[in-house]
Design a protein that fits this description.
Distance between the termini: 47 Å
Structural class: mainly beta
Number of helices: 3
Oligomer: single chain
Order of helices and strands: HHEHEEEEEEEEEEEEEEEEEEEE
Shape: flat
Radius of gyration: 21 Å
Strand content: over 45%
Length: about 300
């Protein structure tokens, strides 16, 4: 790891990256965090059913050190000199793949059938292959816009991810950083080591996994799939007319709380497990955490119409 740090410092000395970019890269080398630094406040929303779970202490699994390898690989790709903010357009393209070592990634919806890119910082390469645009960055933020029927794949070592008015399918993998997805109707797959995951107005099949971080879900339509966290809380806000079976488990320490204002039928109940049905229960959502709370609450009914 020290060799990769020395390379970063040489890039800084040569003026190829800024001091801020150098700092973020060095932080990425040491991103073996086992606790999230971005905790969400725990708020109670009216009366709940409470289920206590006994504590069974056990150390969390260590996070594997993959960052040094990623940095070394990025440095061999021959990135160009960093410059001011740049933009690129790829007409007729609909899919996007972004691989970033250090930097934030923001993706929004394009009004036309093309992929648009904007780079803030340097050491970014972009190319197209078939229907897909591939972006690789070692240091620098990326802002992109893409068609709503496209497929989005993001692989980020250190940086936050924001996706709004999303694509047909969203896949995100991060080591360190928060993930926010808003208005995505094609489902989502998110795997993060350290960071919170916030899903708003999403629908479809969900696979959400985080080692250390909270998960919050506010569906915008029918959802199914899995929400899993090792160390973190899970909050799900559902409409009162939800049509869903919820299977909830806590492995070590935490509480399962279901808002009494949310109409539901208890199907199974034990000290560390609760299964409830809302409506006809035509979809199934599995929620699991090892060390954290699970909170199911009634969604706010006065959300803006454009977010429905």
């Amino acid at each position: 790891m020290s060799n990769e740090r020395d390379r970063i410092l040489r890039l800084l000395e040569d003026g190829k990256i800024s001091a801020d970019q150098a700092t973020r890269l060095i932080e990425a080398l040491g991103s073996e965090r086992t606790e999230s630094e971005f905790g969400m406040p725990h708020t109670h929303f009216g009366p709940r059913r409470h289920f206590r779970v006994r504590t069974r202490p056990r150390d969390l699994d260590r996070i594997p050190d993959v960052v040094a390898t990623a940095v070394a690989s990025a440095m061999k790709n021959g990135f160009g000199e960093p410059g001011e903010e740049r933009t690129n357009e790829f007409p007729g393209k609909r899919d996007l793949l972004v691989k970033s070592v250090s930097g934030d990634v923001e993706v929004t919806r394009a009004e036309e059938g093309r992929v648009e890119l904007s780079y803030s910082g340097g050491m970014v390469k972009a190319r197209s292959s078939g229907d897909q645009v591939v972006v690789r960055t070692m240091a620098g933020d990326v802002a992109a816009a893409m068609p709503p029927d496209g497929r989005l794949e993001l692989e980020v070592v250190s940086g936050d991810v924001s996706v709004s008015q999303g694509s047909a399918r969203v896949e995100v993998k991060t080591v360190s950083g928060d993930v926010g997805i808003n208005q995505a109707s094609g489902g989502a797959q998110v795997k993060t080591v350290s960071g919170d995951v916030n899903l708003a107005d999403v629908s479809g099949d969900l696979t959400i996994e985080t080692r250390s971080g909270d998960v919050e879900l506010v569906p915008g339509g029918p959802v199914t799939g899995n929400l899993r966290t090792v160390s973190g809380d899970v909050t799900v806000a559902l409409p009162k007319d939800a049509d869903l079976v919820l299977e909830m488990d806590i492995e070590e320490d935490g509480e399962i709380e279901v808002d009494d204002d949310l109409p539901h039928e208890v199907l199974e109940e034990s000290e560390d497990h609760l299964k409830v049905k809302l409506g006809a229960g035509s979809q199934t959502l599995v929620v699991k955490t090892r060390d954290g709370d699970i909170s199911i609450r009634a969604a706010e009914e006065d959300r803006p119409e454009e977010q429905m």
